[in-house]
Amino acid sequence: MRDIKVSASIMCGNPLKFGWELEKLEKSGADLIHFDVMDGHYVENIAMGIYMLEQMKKKTSIPFDVHLAMFNPEKYIEKFCDILDENDYLHIHPESTIHIHRVLRDIKKMGVKAGVALNPATNEDALEYLIEDIDIVLAMTVSPGFAGQKFIKQTLGKIKAIRERANEVNPDLLIAVDGNINKNTIPDCIKAGADVLVAGTSSIFKGEDADYKALMNEMRSCAD
To answer: Is 178 assigned a catalytic role?
Structure first.
């Protein structure tokens, strides 16, 4: 049985109470904090940023799972890696940069775990010359940019293909799934090969009175 992790998507929390959200997530047993950076160009939304990440890292001991949904991430890698550490993950998209090998190499050289994020329409073949050298794949099960979208079932075949290839060349590779991940979609994601469940509005962030620990346990139970 694989060790299933829950990565809480902090963007879906109350933006006026991010410190409170982080404290609540830590007490509730979140494995990771999913942090989306959006530049308004790669995706049609603007979200989070370097200084916000810097302050959040000071607030919690939970490792971060940072998703750069932005063009030319190489311009900012050093700034992000200066904030992150060896327990954190940093994802970039293949379409976002010309020399992705170089960017991934630089991330690892600066002591952060390197990941590749794949949009629903990005074929798993994009990982062919990368999969042996990365720590995690972020498989988007909706188009990145906005919460509340419908889960794209066709992505399950891609997740399965990535897991099969990883078992051959990189058995320790983690596969995270992001996009309408809840009790209805988790079983199929786990069966396909996912290890990390990114939790947003459909699974954890259901208002200030929500019991985050109970909701995360429910997610793990669905995985079992």
So the answer is: yes
